[in-house]
Every structure is written in structure tokens, then in C-alpha cells.
């Protein structure tokens, strides 16, 4: 292991601290009483501007800057909430004749990035900055690598900014430390999930958990990650969807269930796709896709408002302002394609669809069936143009092997996708509950698999058996959490809203 000069110096400082009898990684707890932002929010001043409260506070965090001025020093302490200035006096932290705690430890052995705990009182400096006058300080964790703390030179040039995406995503722990604004993205993500969970609970649904390791990769059209169970000596798959298990629970007698689920798909990575992502799916008995559209509008309106502090349903995404307040436009897939291309796909066979794709310069290959071709046409010519929330409804039956056939339109199913800012955000059905029809759809998927479609669904005999015991009419939906967070935080890549996105192996 080759060390830089700074890393060698920090290890030398670590040894010196221990030689002084100070444990740099203590086991005892440190009693924090306040966060940095709590102090600035709670401080009270009298008419002369003197602090009248907060005379005993204890904080803990990283030292992010130091200014040594002889017998005193200023430093910035950063905790989970933000930063606050510290004032450290030699005679306060080393009150006796032995000044080692200040002259040696604080001035020479404390490095930027070290975790310390401080106790003292709050005051206002001559320049008007709320600060903590430190009476005691304790080592809580020595940092052996220097942080890339940004600094500005006399010419105004910024150095050591931690902006390289490759490094930021790979070393998120550094990114969160030196780029505090990144934390707000993940705080909004947490608020979003909390708000959605509250809505679904208030709707009377029950939160459940379903298997991540599955014997059959069902419930979606995607290529799975495959592994092997040694004890059972059988192949297993990381789930590409949790849909078929949630439906089993509806069959078992629950009227409404939901799950925030990690989903895994062995597919490409780009700015909107990560092999591991988060979905919320919920299923409600005795409902259909029309009810689900209304409910989806209400859910998103509630959640977006919560993320925005209860003020607005509008978000700015690049140059576009998107409003999540319902009602959303509802447009059939055929009408959407006709509106944006002038082509009519109603009732046309696979050969004519290939001709339409050719006229529109949409690439399709021989492995694609009728449904996949329509999906390509829509994706290439329509999807990116749908900025405001839009329900695309009534998909061809070939595209939707788990969906109930349309009650009045031959060859279509009762399905919708919600498109926002040119990307799919949600997918929902009136769920197929006819076990004979479902078996035929699965068999059609097997035929597509034989043609080379790696995303064709597998046939799940246990799910078919469950359906044969009877499932009530049911509405179901899946909403992509990561893409929704991207929209609500104005991020252009999915990597910005995942703490630890998948990365290529480090060189």
C-alpha cells in the first residue's frame, strides 16, 4: 500500500496522539445536545445582540477548516445538519500549566476531516457570526485520508472541487461530506417515500414483503440475474418484479397490499437505468385501471406536495415546468401514435407494422413480435414529447401478458403507463384474473423466447395454480421511485439519486 505524504503525516499524527495517552477512536458515547442548525435556529439575542440562551451545548462532527491565531483559533465544525463556527482558546481547553491539549493536540495533531466532540456555550462574534466558544474538546475519530476540501486562491480560482461524477458516485461518502447539497436530494427521496407510504396506509392497504430470490423470473419483460442455491441445488433469480407474489396475496384474501421493493434487471446502464432500482407496487381488489388512474393522480399530487414542503405540485425540470396536480391527460396508445406520426396502428398485422416502422425510421429486428414493434414505434416517436403527466392507455394485447383484455375494444388490454417529462414513470393494469387466458398469454411469451427475445416472460405454473383458485377483479400499479426522485430534484441521471449506483470495476 503506497501512501501519499499527507497520508503518512496523518498516520504519524495518529501515533503521536496515542503516545500522549489519548484514544483517537474512543468507545464511549459522546452526549450530543444540539445540531449545528438547531443552534442557529434556537439562539436568542437581547437588545445589545448578546446571546441569552444556549449556555451549555455539546456538538460532534468533522473539522472542515482551521485558522490558528496564536493562543486562539477558529474552526468550522460540520455535522449532519450543516456547519457552525467554533472558537477555541488555549486557556479554556488547557486551563492548567500543561498546554499540550492546545499547543500540540489541537494546533498540530488535529487534521481536516477529523471527528471531534466539543462542549461550550454559544455567543455572537464581532462580525455577527453565531459561534460556539469551546470549553472542552474530545477526539472521536481520526481521518487518515485528506478530504478534497474546495479552496479559492487570490485570483478567485477554485481548487480541489470534488465534481468528477466517476469519483463522486464511487466514493459517495466523500461526496456527501464535501458537497453538502447532495444530501438534500436524498432527504427529498426519504420524504417522498414517507409521504407515499402514508397515503397508501391511509388508503387502507397493508405493507408486505415478498421474495427477492425467486425460482422463476416472472412479472415483467426483462433479463434476470441468475444465481444458484447450493442446498436445494436449483437455479435462482433476483426478482425482476414482485407482481406475481403480490397477486398471490390478493388471491389469499387481502383486499389491498403494497411493497417498496428492490428490483434487479440484468440490462444496460445509462443515465436513466441502473441494474438495481426501487419500485413501489400496490394491488387493490375490486378495482380497475380507471380507478387506478384517479388514485395515481391523488398519490402523486400528495407526495409531490410533501416533498415541496406542502406548498406546490409544480417542479422545474431543465427548461420545463411540470405540474403534478390532477387530472392528467388520458390518451390511448394508438391515438398518441396517430397524433404524433399520422400513422394508424389499429388492427394492422405484424408485416404492416414493420412497414410503418420503416417509414418512421424506427429500427426493429426479426426477434420482435407485434407488441415489441408497437412499443418501439411509441418509444421512438412519441414518448419524449410527453412532458406534462400523461396517461397512455389501452395497449395492444401482445404487449401486456398479465393484463385483462379490454371490455369494449377488441385486441387491446386495460393498461396504462404514466409518462412524465418524456419518460415512463408508472405502469398499471386491470389485472388478468382468467387462468385459462393467462396460460395462453404465457405460452405466447414462450414462443417469443424461442424467437430470441431475451426479455420474454417465463411460464410460472405455481402462479397459474394460484389463479385457478380464483382472484377477484384487481387493479395494480408499479411506480419507479428513482425516476420520480429524479423529476422532483431536477437530476438528469439516475446515479444522482442512488446512494451507491452500480459502477464499472475500479482500475
TrEMBL record:
Residues 186-501 form the Aminoacyl-transfer RNA synthetases class-II family profile domain. Mg(2+) 2 binds at residue 424. Its cofactor is Mg(2+). One of its GO terms (biological process) is lysyl-tRNA aminoacylation. Signal peptide: none annotated. It is an enzyme of class 6 (ligase). GO terms for cellular component: cytosol. One of its GO terms (molecular function) is ATP binding. It catalyses: tRNA(Lys) + L-lysine + ATP = L-lysyl-tRNA(Lys) + AMP + diphosphate. It comes from the Bacteria. Binds 3 Mg(2+) ions per subunit. Its EC number is 6.1.1.6. Mg(2+) 1 binds at residues 417, 424. It is found in: Cytoplasm. Its main location: cytoplasm. Keywords: Aminoacyl-tRNA synthetase, ATP-binding, Cytoplasm, Ligase, Magnesium, Metal-binding, Nucleotide-binding, Protein biosynthesis. Belongs to the class-II aminoacyl-tRNA synthetase family. HAMAP family: Lys_tRNA_synth_class2. Homodimer. This is Lysine--tRNA ligase.
